[in-house]
Amino acid sequence: MTMLEATGLSMQVGDGRWLFRDVDIYLSKGDVLVLxxxxxxxxTTLLKCLAELVPYDEGNIxxxxxxxxxxxxxxxxxxxxxxxxxxxxxxxxxxxxxxxxKNFASQKEKKNLDDPTQIGMQWNLxxxxxxxxxxxxxxxxxQRCALAVxxxxxxxxxxxxxxx
Length: 164
Hints:
Strand order of the largest sheet: 2-1-3-4
GO molecular function, one term: ATP binding
CATH superfamily of the largest domain: P-loop containing nucleotide triphosphate hydrolases
Keywords: Hydrolase
CATH architecture of the largest domain: 3-Layer(aba) Sandwich
InterPro entries: ABC_transporter-like_ATP-bd, P-loop_NTPase
Structural class: alpha+beta
Pfam families: ABC_tran (PF00005)
Largest sheet: 4 strands, antiparallel
Protein name: P-loop containing nucleoside triphosphate hydrolase protein
Distance between the termini: 27 Å
Number of helices: 6
Helix content: 25-40%
Number of domains: 2
CATH class of the largest domain: Alpha Beta
């Protein structure tokens, strides 16, 4: 059974050329899809479109047969979560980000949130990494903390951008 379905997804850039055109993606629970291509080919933009973070010109995206407008965009983004290659430097700590995100209305219906610290410890992070200011973490530590936070929020679809 298809969980995430994108059909005819297309985006045109300012000069009139298509960044991508007529992309179809069908994913079932447990599927892994890897997008590969040269820098500037549109991989990041396509992932952001799937997460409803940037608008696309044509096509539609459905999760369990429903569009983002059926869920509401905040709820969609809690179910289809995008993790950037280089996490933006947030104020506070990774645990501050997790605690803020878990209190969003879109997260309220989730019963079983995980502990990002426990997830991160599997990737050579310590508890102190999650209470350290983002600005004091290395790029790799930031990326692993951001991924641990995203995983702890239990999205249905996780869109990872970068070299994982």
